[in-house]
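Lab notes, practical 5.
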Amino acid sequence: MLGDMVWERIRQKAEYTEDGTLVHLPDNFRATEICAEAKETCYNWFFKVGSIRELLPRIYLELAIFHCWRFLLQKPADNLPRLVMMARGIADPLVSFYCRLYLAHCAQKLPQRDLGHLIISMNDMNTLLMNGAHVASVEKTSGVLSGNRSSKLGLMEPAIEYVTKCLFRESCELQVGEILMGLGLGRNQSELFGNSSCISLVLHHLLKELPIEIIFSNALDILHLIECSYDYSFDQCLNFKLLGLRLCENISQVNEVNLVMKKVIQVVSRFNSLDEYLNVVDAHIDIALQKHMNSYLDSILDGILERTSDGEIGESELSSLQSILLKLLNHFDNLENMLQLNHFNQILSMMQGSSRTIINLRILSIAIRNTFVRDPTTIQFLFEVSRSLHDSIDLSNIKDKENNRSAHLISRFIHMVDYGSEGERHLAFLVQCRGAFGSMSEVKETIVHSSNLLAIKSRRNDISCIIFVKSCIACSEVTIPSIPSHLKQLNLYLETAEVALMAGLVSHLDGLVDSALRCLNNIDLLEGSRMPKDIDGFQSILCKFCSLIVMIPGDIERGVTSIPRNMFSILSSLSWMLPSMKVKVLCALILTFAALSQKNLLYHSIHDEVMGNDSLFYGDQQYMRELLSFSAVILQSLIDTVLQEPIQAASGNLALDACNAIASSFEACEGASDICSKLVETAKLSLGSDNKYLQSTIKFLNSRELVQGEGLKKQENNLLCESVM
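Output from the prediction step:
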């Protein structure tokens, strides 16, 4: 603030000429353009600063107003070496480091760029560190780095980092060579890193700031320099790691890459610490992968296994190991090739916690890119990976995004498994999965789907196949009740019932349908909210149920309409059902009864031994009376439900839905026409006569008056309509 205020004051004076004329002073002004009064004021400030006896305040105050030398000298940077020399008089190393930082900061305000003072500052800081550390001696007990060595170095590091950044900011390659020679690291422009050494902390920040081209062309020499720079100012392995990261910025440009990797392997082979070893190989493994250096890759994996066999793996080691394994997975992108790597399974088994979870997720993500997984070894490996992933989930937060992703990946893996003709082995695998992944609902759904699909694939006429299909259905029946959602249970019971029907297992079919009806009775789409959830899914499942009823043989003892009667009874008892939902289901039931009344059913089970109701009951008067009797009940309920809808527009649309269902189900007769006419009038009042749905419905009704369909017999149809009217 002081420096800016002094600058502004002198600048105001400099904007007046000797005769008092106001002029505009450009940003790139010269000292010769400044008037005498402004120069006198400027000299006065520097004289005041120079009169301060204490060294540190005098340096800082002069640095604060240092850019004001522009008013006096054409090359103010010529004064910087003097201040650098003054900083050598500061006794406290930490204070002297920050003084040099401030000097570099203030020098950035000058228009001329000067590197000399920065090189001198870096060399001075390097000398202070060297004299204070005597880095080869662990027993050192005095000097700047003694005692709380790490804390003092942590305080000094920002000064080193800033001065280094200023050194290499916008430096060209020629200047970089001059800088390195000035720092004592190079003999000439062709040998930038000779047989020299450097304080590790300084070297670290040099490696950060050096232009990448210099690092590419001198990688071997830099490796040797790091190896020679062994002290306690900075962890040597982190410098090896930093070099690897810099080289990976563009691996194709690295000179003598084979010699570089050979040297790295030699260096890390001497590390006993797992953390140090992993830090270095993690940074260099991409080079071995991209250049297909399989021998070096094998050496790295051998070294990891050798150092992980003793003791526990800490958090830092796990993080590095995670990074290495992810790089391997991303490179190979093929699970079979990955499993062929030396010690991959052993290294993976040592992972734990969140790192193991991340690796497992990545493995499964790669595995599911294929269409099928057929190799038994791969299946077993992925099963173990999936089980580890399942066991790591947080049961207290089962809806967590990561847990959902885990469940999805495991489900996808189970779906992809294919044992070919070995159906029994595949079913045993599904049973094993049911026991291993008991807390994942999505996985259990997949097990049911896979079990049902297995039964369909194995369909033959021999007895052994029927036994196998029964086993598959039993697997599904045991698994479904453990799924929390009753709506999903209902859908899975119906799917399994279709499989039983396909196989001709009518007794199993009856049990599955009964289970489906019990699920229907327990469904509550409200779940604490004001409006039902997943209405479309619920209606779709019920329509699927109705279509399945057409193929299920009726039971004389319980009544041929016992299943739809039970469904209707359950739906009538569900207090949360909206009129719109109920109307759609009742329309589906009416269409179902119309289908059952046909002389020839629209579709049958593909199993020859499962006879449809058209073969069992057609022409039976009791069967027709039961259909007619219950159709009247449904028809009356449908009309009453339409009238219960409180919203006018919705009521009109429901009336048209009911009208279309009735017109499609019953032959043209006076009673049916009267019911449809009343529903059309309700729709007109609610929607208006120009509504497109209304117009298309009226057109359909007119066509039904002319074309007689295969609905219920006309005489019985009239009786039904009269009973409703």
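Observations recorded by the TA: Residues 133-147, 706-725 have pLDDT under 50 and may be disordered. The first helix runs from residue 2 to 14.
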